[in-house]
Amino acid sequence: AQAHYLSTLHGLSVEPLREPPLVTVPKKITQFIDEASRVCTPSNIHICDGSETEYNNLINLMVQQNMAAPLPKYQNCYLTRTDPRDVARVESRTIISTSNKHDVVPNGFNPHKGALPNWMSPEELEKQLGDRFPRCMEGRTMYVIPFSMGPVGSPLSKIGIQCTDSPYVAVSMRIMTRMGLDVLKILNEDTPFVKCLHSVGAPITPGSTRPVWPCNPENTLISHRPESNEILSYGSGYGGNSLLGKKCLALRLGSYMAHKEDWLAEHMLILGITNPQGVKKYVAAAFPSACGKTNLAMMTPNLPGWKIECVGDDIAWMRFNPNTGMLHAINPENGFFGVAPGTSKKTNPNAMASIFQDTIFTNVASTNDGGVYWEGMGEKPEGVVDWHGNDWDGKSNAAHPNSRFCTPARNCPIMDASWEDPEGVPISAILFGGRRPEGVPLVYEAYDWDHGVYIGASMRSEATAAAEHQGKVIMHDPFAMRPFVGYNMGQYFDHWLSFGRKKHVQLPKIFHVNWFRKDSNGSFLWPGFGDNIRVLEWIMKRMEESSPESEIAKKSPIGVIPTESGFNLDNVSVDWNELFRLDKSFWAKESSDIQKYFNDNLGHDLPPQIRNQLNLIQERIQKL
Ligand code: GDP
Ligand code: PGA
Ligand code: MN
Ligand code: MN
């Protein structure tokens, strides 16, 4: 089958591929497109070639439809405002469907809403899809997006074909993934690919009004079929729900594949760090959504002579390399979908240098000189229009707290020279962390691999605006993967433990960090951002040490912590004792909360090594 075959699909007009004139498209792919269009009945099909002309045409179409507005203050930047009901990931409506429930839901599960992946039976999902997808693209164009997660043609990359009725998704996918003709060209009949179907769920019927941001919040469903490599997403245009390469493919299906194929798909940034002596290491870090990954990945160090380079800010695919014995990581993405509020020249100058060209902003505020504004950006300009499109009253949020920039990685001035290396970069340390206003010190180190896996498994963090949760409750979020793990969490913990049993490998050291501890007035105890280099400096020194005790390190019940004299506090004033205070009653409660969480949610699927680690920590805390 060849591309021009597509132009006869159901007699619909298919916008032709521009060049080269003919691309051989594997039959499996034309069949998928055919099937999607038969069910969803779009009025048009557009196969995306990924060209700049196509991007500009789609943006112009969005501008005509009031879905995007140009930002003339910058170069090639646009602002979209979503329906206020469609601003974040919807975890309660995100499901994994497998034939065997236990493949997704641990035994002894005590239904605790949103605690672990939601499972749906294949029969129920079939029914739910049947209630949604038929004729859902009526009156709309279906965009077909061939994309690669990871460099095109790399043995570590995965291919997806996304059919969507949202031009916003098409242009965003061009930024966030490698998309278009280059991907079609490398496919053959045997290339596995993930079938991704997405609809905003708002057909245009005769006489209906056209919403500026079509969506269907009442019927939103983000579903995954890992056994057949399919993603079906309905009702939301918001990035995390609609750009299916990102959370759905790279993390949910990715983690399922990784479990089967002996690698790891993680919610992690990857950065390179070079010390003043010129020694370079790579670090990966898992923090929940809106807890500091993008900022750490692009950090400008506040210590002279140090250099940070960015490999990725959200997702890491990692496997042990048989030649080096080290855990090698690639960033499967091609851009940044970053939190706007809090981004400023002071906090993240590299993001500020990236986002004022070729960027799509979503739900930020705009200014009367054709620019953007958000909380924490700097001086408040005059004449701000808030994210709803109303004149800003100066009191409510100007930008939505989960407003985002979507910008190509190539715009970032500190991309690492190896960021697209198909071999990946060797990881020397893994960081876990979250927003912990109370009790949790700035940094501590695991005693060994199993302890490190326990630290990942017992992660907790304050809820953020990245998903629908209300208020600032402290939520359990193992490995920052609670919303993204594609299989049984007990098996996931076990998969992590299995790396500790591998022979002839160099395991990365594991640390926990917390930039967000507060004092009694509610102010952050740690300056954060560029000063986080001080923590990375200590971590880098610890990479050279194997004993838990040294001039710079000492034991504590929860792990190895820095000595005050072994930690660089030049030109910064902090309350060291408060930053590292370990309160016995806090940690006793913390470990009993974790125990309860494990019992309720993992039951018999909790690996014995994790229970053992919990017991050891509880014993050590008793001695505090
Ligand atoms: P991500 O969603 O995990 O990538 O998190 P981001 O890096 O986008 O940060 C989310 C929010 O946390 C933004 O408002 C940041 O300004 C803020 N943030 C990031 N790093 C720090 C830090 O070290 N200290 C403080 N206080 N806030 C931070
Ligand atoms: P984040 O990415 O981790 O940068 O917030 C989006 C998300 O996780 O929803
Ligand atoms: Mn994320
Ligand atoms: Mn981010």
UniProtKB/TrEMBL annotation:
| Pfam families on file | PEPCK_GTP, PEPCK_N
User: Can you cite a GO biological process for this protein?
Assistant: response to lipid
The enzyme's first-digit EC class, named in words, is lyase
Q: Name one GO molecular function term.
A: GTP binding
Q: Does the keyword Transferase apply?
A: yes
Annotated Phosphoenolpyruvate carboxykinase GTP-utilising N-terminal domain residues:
31-259
Q: Which GO terms describe its cellular component?
A: cytosol
Subunit structure, per the record? Answer: Monomer.
Q: Which family does it belong to?
A: Belongs to the phosphoenolpyruvate carboxykinase [GTP] family.
Protein name in the entry: Phosphoenolpyruvate carboxykinase [GTP]
Q: What is the organism lineage in this UniProt record?
A: Eukaryota, Metazoa, Ecdysozoa, Arthropoda, Hexapoda
